[in-house]
Amino acid sequence: MTYSSTPLELIKPAHMESWLVAGVLYLLLAFYPQALAIQMAAWLWAALMIYGGTQERLGHTTACIFVAGFAYYAHWFYHFPHESYTNDLKHHIRYLKFIQDHPFDIYSYTGKESWHPPFYYTLAGLWELVISQQFGPQLHASLRVFALAMYMVYGLYALLTLRLVHRREDMPYWIGCILIVFWPISVILATRINNDVMMYMVWSMFYYYFLRWYKEGSQTLLAVAVMMVGVGFMVKTSAAIPAALLGIVIAYRLYGGRLRLSDLFSVRMLPAYLLLTVGMVFNQGKGIYLYFHHEEWLTQLGQKSKAQDVLNKVLSFDLSHYLMNPYLGKALWHQPNQTGYFLKTMLYGEFNWHQRAIATFM
């Protein structure tokens, strides 16, 4: 298996038409779902286009699994309302609408979710405005389409990463593909309106290019990985995690002599560092603005966010509570320890999972 070293390798000219056709069909289907026969035919055509755009990179069977995941998420989009599996929808919408109404004052929002950088809300707001002009008011549907598009990119890069680290198409590989595409939380995140979906997309892109750089040593791949960290900081502060990972590995390679300082400070790396700097400044700009203009509100937020007995909650684990309560739901904020909370949210998020047998088994 050979790989090119260009960051836009997945959008080759030969496949651009497939992606554009699939995107246009999906928009029409999302906002004009009328005749069932036409709808089903168009869905099939869109699935074939997605398959055609990915099978060269993923392989035939993996591309089919990916398309099956797309059908699974699309089914959820049509048959479950936008308020399904969400507990902060209205706050994300308010943040987005504020930026639409104050495009030159994006830092001054002080409602819930305002601790997040405004990058996702700015892009989502622009997307929603474009869709509303073309198809009429479609607030929730347009934002769910936006989320699904990003989640498909996440799934694509996640499968590419699996293919990169596990090159044999054996049983563990197929189990990994199925888990990535059909993991219980996947269908919830795929059409959920919040900034987590964009974070997943950026992180999956980062890990793919990071692992390729680790294997191949290409400076271009390192630059792309640094760029993904910069974009990640624009989305969420949790981008500090891949940033720390990248920093540790770079330091290890410098110490071992597998990387030179001249490689890090070459001209080719300058755009990556520029985007990283912009991302970090953009991320911290929100907090700095609130500190100088809404210090009292920021202090109150800090007091509300303080947790009691943090160390004990993180290190302890109540096995009986974990096994006897497969759901979270209303008990979300009353977990006896955070370890059980983390183990459950990685499966099906912060919500009850209606299929009790699946929840209990997982």
Quick description:
The chain has 18 helices and no strands. The protein has 362 residues and is mostly helical. The longest helix is centred in the middle third of the chain and has 27 residues, at 139-165.
Assign an overall shape.
globular
Helix content: over 70%
Query: What's the β-strand tally?
Result: 0
Taking the alpha carbons of the first and last residues, their distance comes to 34 Å
How much is the average pLDDT? 76
Task: Report the C-alpha radius of gyration, rounded.
Answer: 22 Å
| Portion in strands | under 5%
Q: Uncertain spans, ≥5 residues at pLDDT below 50?
A: 1-14
Number of helical elements: 18
